[in-house]
Design brief:
EC 3.7.1.2 (chains A, B); SH3 type barrels; alpha+beta; 26 strands; 2 domains; homodimer
Chain lengths: ~425, ~425
């Protein structure tokens, strides 16, 4: 049964059938590649990309999807809703399947390019970026650092906590991160705050949930319909300057500590590719409150979680110079999130707030129950108190100039092809003083 | 001297010369009007609007500005920078001046329409919306309600506090506000929060600062250059559900309490029209810290403030039925803000965050030092403890269904035409339960 399932999804591209590829035929994540002075949409297959603009031009795609597939970003496709998404996915699956018609294969081959030599750009125009706080393990451990007597605030288990991030400064994997300068809290001896490059630059391991079908202002999305609005996911690194954050965030939340840059991975995994990796919502303690009825559906509790294994790696300049492999900082899994993607979507619209095609709802830092599964350095080093020792004998409390952070994610389930989310990576450049 | 100045700015439209008009020749605010199924940019003059799309079509505007003036929103003009803004303003001033060439006047008359019969739309595509907290009087009085021992947090006088609002749900004056539903804090006897229509719906009297010229990610805007990026201002009402806010805002700030709707006025006053109304930055107490050097310039301290008188009116359904005038709730002035527009702009970019053409930087609630100059009901009624008695014998702690809130603003200075910002108004509709 399991082998049959895998055999049924064989591509005519040999390396798409290799068990370790991120991009088998069952995945087909969307990206955007630079082609001369244009940006073309594409899907990844094995070690190649298939140029959708070229496919549409050679008549391989349904006419109704031509405009969406020849646009520079996914937004038009996203806004068209799940029937269009399913039609395109079915067409591309047939086109890249081992049983493809020879005349179609020939045309598709002309639209194939190696991923290795390509430059990827942001595949989505992101109108709005919301960042949630959906990992109870992250919220608890951060709370322990700053409020040891009450690590988890009274609202946490009732309401998905979130805030608005900055959409303008979202970058795609590979673009450098310039260390931000900002105000930090004056010490007891100082009268004025300092205005200096952050010395507590951190990453945050997150998933981006991309909204497809928009919602109407004034009309909440019931939890039973939330899935209709979710187009796909990618990796997201919510860079954070902890010293700036701790000084500025009272009483209105994080601002300059976060909005200098956020990095997304270049590939958007369609939600349909994640169906085999759906799991129950994370189990709550018997003493936990039940979600309020607007946040509860039996179907969501049964299969609203996503089993996405996540990893963070650090590659310092010294490690690069010595050709060492990236050092694994931690592993966690999106299945441990306290709130499901559907709950986040429904909560966001419950007051009538409208969602737009291309919006990102980020999960917040994804940490697991174990200390080694923390999704940021604030947790891993206990706000700098416990430095990490690297194989080069270097130590890290927070990020140094030249450090590269690499996020990876993947899904595995018996009887199904493994899929990988690709990489979300960026290197820290020194502050411009 | 004063009379000469006013006489020099005489328009051939008689009502533009009336001393009480909001829209004399020295103002020329930009708007967007519905024309069949299109949206045309326009300027207000007296009781009329001048359609810029039509003006460009009849050759009245410089060719270099045609595309920007025939676009549905101001964003292209905004992004072109201050030389383009000055060129257009000079052209329109000449066109509407009493000394206009007769052949130009004839063409302009064909592009004139009455404001009264027109439908106005959002004149700007707003990519990002930031809300500051720049009134120390607001921050102090809100702090007194919730932290009587420490009303003003230690960071307030050092750093302009701000957070990201929701850009997708910004409406233009006249569009209804649907009362939001949300979670509110459980009482001591309750186990679960309530999920009900807010019973503490409030307005916030603010100014929107519209960014014109964008800034580059990674490159802060020095305070000496901040003025180059500011295109204009309008009125803004940051609707707030205080009961939702108090339950959700820890630890990441306001979210659903604010993002259901924000209202902007239809007219964007160009910053050039505000030059006669520039005033020194609000004076600080001798014991206050000096702004850090990146937030300080002598020119900004001397003339970085804006003397904009602001008013809030309430019109209940009963008052409407009895044809009563709107009831004045409070008056304040933007000159009392602790931080200037240039300081807000520079601070926002100081960490490398980029600004985009059309972004709004809102001031936060503008309250004055007197209790009667509070810019929201939270302050005016002390969180509902002191109801307001209306001429109809109705009382209000927070807003009821059917209530209309009207914001107005104006600038006056000896020897100059008065200008008015128009109105920002909206009526509360009942929750959709």
């Amino acid at each position: 049964m399991a082998k049959q399932n895998i055999a049924a999804h064989k591509s005519w591209l040999p390396d798409a059938n290799h068990p370790t590829t991120d991009f088998p035929l069952t995945h087909l994540p969307y990206g955007a590649v630079a082609v001369e002075d244009q940006q073309h949409l594409c899907v990844a297959i094995g070690s190649h990309l298939l140029d959708l603009h070229a496919c549409a031009a050679s008549g391989l795609l349904p006419a109704a999807l031509t405009e969406a597939c020849q646009a520079p970003t996914l937004n038009l496709l996203m806004s068209q809703g799940s029937q269009s998404w399913a039609l395109l996915r079915k067409t591309l699956t047939t086109l890249l399947h081992a049983d493809v018609k020879p005349e179609h294969k020939e045309k598709a081959e002309a639209a194939l390019h190696s991923i290795a030599g390509s430059t990827f750009q942001k595949p989505v125009h992101i109108p709005n970026y919301t960042d949630f706080y959906a990992s109870i393990h992250h919220a608890t451990r951060v709370g322990q650092l700053f409020r040891p007597d009450q690590p988890l605030l009274p609202n946490y288990k009732h309401i998905p906590i979130g805030y608005h991030g900055r959409a303008s400064s979202i970058l795609v994997s590979g673009e450098p991160i310039v260390r931000p300068i900002g105000q930090t809290r004056p010490s007891a001896e100082e009268i004025q705050p300092n205005f200096i490059p952050t010395s507590k630059l951190d990453y945050e391991l997150e998933l981006a949930l991309y909204i497809g079908k928009p919602s109407t202002q004034g009309t909440p999305v019931p939890i039973s319909h939330a899935a209709d609005h979710l187009f796909g996911i990618s990796l997201l690194n919510d860079w954070s300057a902890r010293d700036i954050q701790s000084w500025e965030y009272q009483p209105l939340g994080p601002f300059l500590a976060k909005n200098f840059a956020t990095t997304v991975s270049p590939w958007v995994t369609p939600i349909a590719a994640l169906e085999p990796f759906r799991v129950p919502a994370a189990s709550r303690l018997a003493t936990d409150p039940k979600p309020l009825s607007y946040l509860h559906s039996a179907a969501d509790q049964k299969s609203g979680g996503l089993d996405v294994a996540l990893e963070v790696f650090l590659l310092t300049a010294t490690m690069k110079a010595n050709k060492l492999e990236p050092f694994p900082l931690s592993q966690s899994n999106a299945r441990d999130l306290y709130w499901t993607p559907a709950q986040l979507t429904t909560h966001h619209t419950s007051n009538g707030c409208n969602l737009q095609a291309g919006d990102i709802l980020a999960t917040g830092t994804i940490s697991g129950p174990a200390e080694a599964s923390a999704g940021c350095l604030l947790e891993l080093t206990r706000n700098g108190a416990q430095p990490i020792l690297l194989p080069t004998a270097e130590t890290r409390t927070f990020l140094e100039d030249g450090d590269e952070i690499i996020l990876r994610g993947s899904c595995e389930s018996p009887g199904h092809h493994r899929i990988g989310l690709g990489e979300c990576r960026a290197t820290i450049h020194s502050a411009r003083t």
